[in-house]
């Protein structure tokens, strides 16, 4: 069988397939790019050719403009195609809308690049599908035994409890624009909350896109004052990008209560640094048990760890008798979590 490194290896621009002459999620402009999902650390503008799911192409166009690449080709989940003699197939990753793992196959060797993924249920995207392979390439953002993310429904329950305890206060929830914001709204709706949810302008385009794709987010309204006083938002849920919390936008609401939805809210110090009163641990990445479950489900011969807490996951693999190595890829700063 082919040596895995003949099919795919890391270069400064990203994971490169010499046989097909393409990169997966390159961090610099390249001739041919296969993109796993729309987060800005994976999906960059300026490539000559881009192959991705239709949703990822749509999301890139929304964020960068229609001319983000020289040419674009959409691939459906589960569809196989040939790129320079290499068989390529996209499988759902459960991370954000349109997110995919990319399986490459040549002469009996299969490598799966998982991009970012999670195993928790998420009504806003297709669920992760374990794809048997020889080499499984994974991130390890939360690849330490201390990272156990709680049930997201319980975290949303804490938000709703706070609303009843502090009915006068505006509940300002920080959530990244692609994936996290829509998932938080979807979780709030799943808990039975049907009042309007107010959103910052920076979230509007992507929320609209999710709704157009058939994801029910309920009654969304712009979080603009338009002559109203901050009192108007008493006891309301308002979502904004984390960056908006430091500017005037956040201060105009009535007695704002700062909330942040992120896997990093497991780390008390991070919540404190950001001045978060109510940290919600809601992640679109795998925690430590999910990483372990995935490696058991996929049962690869080798694991390559792209970035994050690489050493701990490599060590765990070795203890399980799975060959593993860190790739030390740079440029993937997980926009989404
Ligand atoms: Zn991501």
TrEMBL record:
Leader sequence residues: none
Domain of life: Bacteria
InterPro entries assigned: MBL, RibonucZ/Hydroxyglut_hydro, Xnuc_lig_assoc
PANTHER family reported in the protein's UniProt record: BLL1145 PROTEIN, CLEAVAGE AND POLYADENYLATION SPECIFICITY FACTOR FAMILY MEMBER
Name assigned to this protein: mRNA 3-end processing factor
Originating species: Rhizobium paknamense
């Amino acid at each position: 069988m082919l040596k895995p490194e003949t099919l795919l290896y890391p270069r400064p621009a990203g994971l490169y397939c010499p046989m097909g002459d393409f990169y997966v999620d390159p961090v610099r402009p390249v001739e041919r790019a296969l993109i796993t999902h729309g987060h800005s650390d994976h999906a960059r503008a300026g490539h000559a050719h881009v192959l991705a799911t239709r949703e990822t192409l749509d999301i890139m166009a929304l964020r960068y403009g229609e001319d983000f690449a020289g040419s674009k080709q959409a691939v459906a989940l589960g569809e196989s195609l040939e790129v320079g003699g290499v068989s390529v197939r996209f499988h759902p990753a459960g991370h954000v809308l349109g997110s995919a793992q990319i399986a490459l196959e040549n002469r009996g060797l299969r490598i799966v690049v998982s991009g970012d993924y999670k195993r928790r249920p998420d009504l806003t995207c297709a669920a992760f599908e374990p794809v048997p392979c020889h080499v499984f390439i994974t991130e390890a953002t939360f690849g330490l035994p201390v990272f156990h993310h709680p049930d997201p429904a319980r975290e949303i329950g804490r938000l709703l409890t706070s609303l009843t305890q502090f009915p006068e206060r505006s509940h300002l929830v920080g959530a990244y624009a692609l994936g996290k914001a829509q998932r938080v709204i979807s979780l709030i709706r799943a808990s039975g909350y049907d009042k309007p949810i107010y959103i910052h302008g920076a979230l509007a385009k992507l929320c609209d896109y999710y709704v157009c794709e058939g994801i029910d987010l309920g009654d969304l309204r712009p979080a603009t004052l338009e002559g109203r006083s901050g009192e108007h938002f008493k006891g309301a849920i308002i979502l904004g990008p984390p960056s908006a919390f430091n500017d005037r936008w956040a201060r105009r609401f009535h007695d704002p209560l700062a909330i942040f939805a992120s896997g990093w809210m497991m780390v008390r110090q991070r919540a404190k640094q950001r001045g978060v009163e109510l940290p919600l641990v809601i992640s679109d990445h795998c925690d430590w048990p999910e990483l372990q479950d995935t490696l058991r489900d996929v049962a690869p011969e080798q694991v390559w760890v792209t970035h994050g807490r690489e050493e701990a996951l490599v060590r765990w693999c070795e203890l399980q008798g799975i060959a593993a190595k860190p790739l030390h890829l740079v440029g993937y700063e997980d926009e989404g979590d």
